[in-house]
Amino acid sequence: MEAEAARLLAAGLAMGIGAIGPGIGIGILGMGAVNAVSRNPEARGPIFTNLLFAVALAEAVAIYALVVAILLIFVA
Question: What is the pTM of this model?
Answer without folding.
Answer: 0.82
